[in-house]
Amino acid sequence: MSYVVFALKWRPKNFDEIVGQDHIVNTLKSSLQKDRLSHAYLFSGPRGVGKTSTARILAKALNCKEGPTVDPCGKCSSCVEIAQGRSLDVIEIDGASNRGIDEIRTLRENVKFAPTQGKYKIYIIDEVHQITPDGFNALLKTLEEPPDFVKFIFATTQPNKVIPTILSRCQRLDFRRISVMEIVAQLDKIAKAEKVEVDREALIAVARSSDGALRDAESILDQLIAFAKGKVSFADVISMMALVEQDTLFAITDKIIRKDARSALELFDEIINQGKDVGTFLANLIEHFRNLMVAKVAQADPVLIDLPQETCARLLEQSKYFSMEEIFAAFNIMVNTQEISKKLDSSRIPIEISLVRLAHEKKEHPSGPAKPLPSRQVKEESPKHIPQTPVIAKPQQPPADPPGKITKITSLDNVKEAWGNIIDNLGRIKISVATYLNEGSPVKMENNILTVAFPMSYSFHKESLERKDNKAVIEKILGESLDNNLRVNFILSKESPKRGDSAANPFIKTVLEVFDGRVIKEE
Prior knowledge:
Elements: H1 6-9, H2 22-34, E1 40-44, H3 51-63, H4 77-83, E2 90-94, H5 101-110, E3 121-126, H6 133-144, E4 150-156, H7 164-167, E5 171-174, H8 180-193, H9 200-209, H10 214-227, H11 234-241, H12 246-257, H13 261-273, H14 278-298, H15 302-305, H16 309-319, H17 324-343, H18 348-359, H19 375-380, H20 412-429, H21 431-437, E6 441-446, E7 449-455, H22 459-465, H23 468-482, E8 487-493, H24 506-515
Parallel strand pairs: 1-4, 1-5, 2-3, 3-4, 7-8
Antiparallel strand pairs: 6-7
Helix pairs in contact: 3-4, 5-6, 8-9, 9-10, 9-11, 12-13, 13-18, 14-16, 14-17, 17-18, 17-21, 18-24, 20-21, 20-23
């Protein structure tokens, strides 16, 4: 007998073998037991999660000689023929290649004929959203009032493309992505049955790369067994799929925590030299920071992170070195990097710049070196140590100076000239605040109140900086840098950057900031 790939060999044959869709299984079983079956079902969900397999099992449950039953025998002629795809009473149609009005008219005519052997005539239409609007309209009347012996089962990955008149005539069941640990359990079961030894780390890596599609995971495992020499190891998965190891993501995040920009670049260079895809690396790093966020919020709940308990524990420990604002700032930097990468031939340069931004050792203040604090120390610092600006009844009036202090006037030009140093000094205290403020521009100075403008799409930055503790830190650094008692105000501006202003370009602006450069010539 010829070799059968895992995705077909291990296709579920009954309801109990369906993985990760308990809510679907329970609904269908209950409908069969109570004899409350709909005449049309719509199975929607991502690819490879069991929609077509479930449709075939439901067809067997309806047409089994013992049926309708929740436990089709799998041995009668009807069950065997359905499993092999050759039953005359179960017609499987590809919606992509039978999408026109002529094909649907043919289907509508054939619906009238009674089943040849089973109790029902069942139409399974895969990727039903591919059918044209005219085709759907031709099907409407038949779908609404089909013969008693006809059942329709539609499957689609894009239910939003199915017209509402069809949706309203179907009972919709939404399949979900299968969790990493559920896929790992199924792959481990397959490996043991096939008498193949596979490292647990390898199974986890395969499950993560499948993005919730069990069929994809089974296909990858099949390929790995052919690729590996003997036992399938984690190294085999990394080698074959060019994945970025979880340890590498932890390591490069440690470089960011320690503000070791050089080591971060060296580690990234090693990743490239190993043949890893830089786009995949960036996506994995974004996912890692997402996991850090969830670990911080949910105390490393394995259900929310969908990773083994030991990995969740490491994420929780590493998340302690970041504030939530720093994690959000890292998200903004990396997502912007993805957008910039789409416009360039090479993704390496924008990723390197982003790593330097995340892990750059700030320039030292002339008064002496300052060691950057870990985020959790910054978070624990009490706001009472930060000088608070007194509340002013009339914002248009300048604040009262403390006794003995000479009133000084600071111009907008003075602020713009010192802006770079202000951002650097602020970065030593709270990098997230410095990152947000760096996206704004000083636009007005009146009565010692500085107005900083942000583009309309940067409302999150404005709201974060308006928090009492963040605003106090900014005003403290402004006062120290400009030797004056200043207040700050934030606004959103609809004005676009002037044409030819290179520094307004986010990519060029980042390069100028990281490498302390200036524009020589514009063309």
